[in-house]
Specification:
289 residues; 4% strand; two-stranded parallel sheet; elongated
Length: 289
């Protein structure tokens, strides 16, 4: 796969409650997939008031203003006798806002005065709780999920060296063909698009991932390599999901912030897969007669 490391654009220092709390789910973290536990990774540098938000992530600009506006609308303009606002269930930020509105209503259902002395949940506790309980694993970690179709994979019983060599050459050929449109790293394409406002190359990158996924499904894989092949397809699908979230972060700040965290995770998984492939090639002496 292409090199996929953290982006290089800058982020402002003046982040408040939204960025501070959501930052716990982005960047330099350790994650328990099943429990959705969040922990700062002591092996990575932590910046911006110790929140774990990567200082150079660049994708949270505007989140503070948008979140404060939503909170202001909830606290100042909404009658607590009304239902929470309608929202797009696919938009994680709107879904969290609606959940917050519901919580405010529940806390104040015995209040006659909707404004004076209003009880409001502690945002520092509410947001991590929503992330843990309100998101599916697929939404949280950008896993391939139902988009992965194992039945489409073509598996061969031929595990001879010739068949494996043909497979590995095909593997490399797919990567080369898919991403030949640019010499840039993924991080450079993402950075340049957000800095220039021109997303032409970014969109070509998304198309390239679609093409690569299709080609890997079509590539016949020896059964002894099938699991690594599945990992590659899953990583390609996850990466495309992450890039889609990072293309327009203002549409869903929570999703794009989690995508920053996914950006790092995919990088580690990609390096791990590369090592496993190289180790297997060496152990099986594929290129030796």
């Amino acid at each position: 796969m292409m090199n996929f490391y953290k982006p290089e654009t800058k982020i402002g220092k003046g982040l408040t409650v939204f960025a501070v709390i959501i930052g716990l789910a982005a960047g330099t973290i350790l994650i328990s997939k099943k429990e959705k536990q969040i922990e700062i990774n002591p092996n990575k540098s932590v910046s911006i008031n110790g929140t774990g938000i990567p200082e150079n992530s660049g994708f949270l600009a505007g989140a503070e203003k948008d979140w404060e506006k939503k909170i202001d609308e909830l606290l100042k303009n909404r009658s607590l006798n009304l239902n929470p606002p309608e929202y797009d269930p696919g938009n994680l930020t709107d879904r969290m806002t609606a959940a917050l509105a519901q919580k405010i209503i529940e806390l104040n259902k015995d209040r006659r005065d909707n404004r004076q002395g209003m009880r409001v949940p502690k945002i520092i506790e509410f947001v991590p709780q929503f992330i843990k309980q309100g998101l599916t694993d697929e939404e949280y970690d950008f896993s391939a999920g139902k988009d992965f179709e194992p039945a489409k994979i073509k598996i061969s019983k031929d595990n001879g060296k010739k068949a494996i060599r043909e497979y590995l050459n095909g593997f490399k050929s797919i990567i080369d063909r898919s991403f030949s449109f640019s010499d840039k790293l993924v991080k450079e394409i993402v950075r340049d698009a957000h800095q220039s406002g021109d997303f032409t190359e970014f969109d070509e990158l998304l198309i390239a991932y679609d093409y690569a996924i299709k080609e890997f499904y079509a590539l016949t894989v020896p059964s002894g390599w099938a699991e690594l092949h599945k990992e590659e397809i899953n990583l390609l699908i996850s990466t495309k999901k992450i890039l889609e979230a990072l293309r327009r972060p203002e549409k869903d700040y929570l999703k794009s912030t989690l995508a920053v965290r996914g950006y790092y995770l995919v990088a580690f998984q990609s390096l791990d897969l590369k090592k496993k492939i190289n180790d297997k090639v060496a152990a099986d002496k594929i290129w030796k007669n």
